[in-house]
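Open question from group meeting: does this chain pack into something compact, or does most of it stay loose? Before anyone orders reagents, we agreed to write out a predicted structure and look at it together. Recording both the input and the output here so the notebook holds the full record.
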Amino acid sequence: MFVTRTSLLAAGVSTLAAVTLVLGGTLSAGATGPVGAGAVPKGFEANSTAWLSPELGWVLGLAPCGSKTCTDVIGTTDGGAKWGLLGSVPAPIPQPGPTAPSPGITDVRFATAKVGWAFGPDFFVTRNGGRTWQKAAIPGAGRQVLAFDAEPSGAFAVVSPCALGSRCSKALGLYTASATAPAAWSRVALDLPWSAAAGVAMAGSAVYVADFARSYSSHKDVLYASTDGGGHFVARNVRCDARPGQTLDVAAWGSKDVALLCQAGSGTGQSDKFAYTSTDAGATWKPAGTLPYDGIEALMAVSPTGDLFVATWAIGSFLDVNDGHGTKWTEVAVEGNSAGWNDPTYVTGSRGYVVYGPPSASRYDFGQLFETTDGGLHWKTVTL
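Structure tokens returned:
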């Protein structure tokens, strides 16, 4: 992918007052989208976004369709100036509630302008840019896709053999497929213990797999790094506090450039969060500072030039940035609702996106796509 799932921010930030998140603002308009696409459905709520270049992007979301709710994919070929409906995925986007977890999809990724996947926990594939989607077999006869990323060179998926919501301790599996054969998955020789979560980030020939087994067992957290497209992986030590409940997030922006976010010590709406960067594929790490305590759930992003951005939420939703390649973090936006975020993504050194209030994670169902055009200094909602 042009950038990984976790990649966002650039530019300078000096004060909290200098950065605003503007709800209800407008950055793009127009009911019609790419050639051959229909109008964006009225009431469309964004859940996930993916970008293959600064011009070519997709958004997966929900929209009313008669008496039902459809899972739609919209797209742009001109950097968001116009958006249009491409097609629908025949699967629900699970929404939080008092009932047991339900199957469906939450995220979307593309390897090429035509080949993409929708996943989490179920699995679907498109071969025509998102216009039609077919249910795909989860690699290795698995039951859930826990983590996924794609590049033009192909895709990697971390798969669990355990059914959604079940209790089991079976090991996870890592699988890879090419964009030319998106249904032909092969097992990667990597020992991943049981866990309920994992992370994958790709950047060119680099592939990183975050194993946060310590969050769920006594295993030590490990980051596996490959610089040859997944041909060989090396286990890297993780510079994180080894307390119970720790989670990791990983972001890559170059063949050997990678960033790591460590979380632990969660309290009432707050947690300890530390960041590290590496320029040698995780062989050595440089501290990138301690983040503000606000927020528990967190997703990290990195710009093409290595600036860091974290979208975090718990009691409230927050955006934190480190744009100086040092250790200073600034909380640049605060929202009173615990609506959360998804898919922080940077497409250039100054333009980036993040989904606010994704329906799959938020009872508020804002489902808004936010855009920055000045490296994170200001944010506005995109009219889809």
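Observations to bring back to the group:
Confidence is low (pLDDT under 50) at residues 1-33.
The first strand starts at residue 20 and ends at 22.
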